[in-house]
Amino acid sequence: MSSLPHGSNTSPVEVTHVSSHGIWLLAHDEELFLPYTEFPWFLDQPLKAVMRVEEPSEGHFYWPDIDVDLSLAMIREPGKFPLKAQLQK
Asked: CA–CA separation, 31 vs 39, rounded Å?
């Protein structure tokens, strides 16, 4: 008797951890850290909104409840993308 092959991964991207310093994103077996200093949009957001992430196309991540779009390149090297929204306090 042999087992059936594993199916495709139905969740290739997910937020795996939220800390006081930032969030951890798991995308296609790569774990990425998004610190709030570079990605301030996630700070002070409801946990449910931060956890709900989609990947409309490979390497493009979207948080619909926050209306944040980020590419893999932006996450890996945020210094190459200096323009970012400022949080209003």
From this structure: 16
Asked if 26 contacts 61 with a C-beta cutoff of 8 angstroms, the reply is no
- Close Cβ partners of 19 (under 8 Å, ≥ 6 residues apart): none
The count of structural domains within the chain is 1
Q: Which amino acid is at 8?
A: S
How far apart are alpha carbons 14 and 31 in whole angstroms? Answer: 10
pLDDT at 1: 53
Contact (CB, 8 A) for 41 and 35 = no
When the pLDDT of each residue in the chain is averaged and rounded to a whole number, the result is 87
In terms of C-beta density within 10 A (0-12 exposed, 13-18 middle, 19 or more buried), how is residue 62 classed? middle
Considering the entire predicted model, what is its pTM? 0.79
User: Which structural domain, as residue segments, surrounds residue 20?
Assistant: 13-80
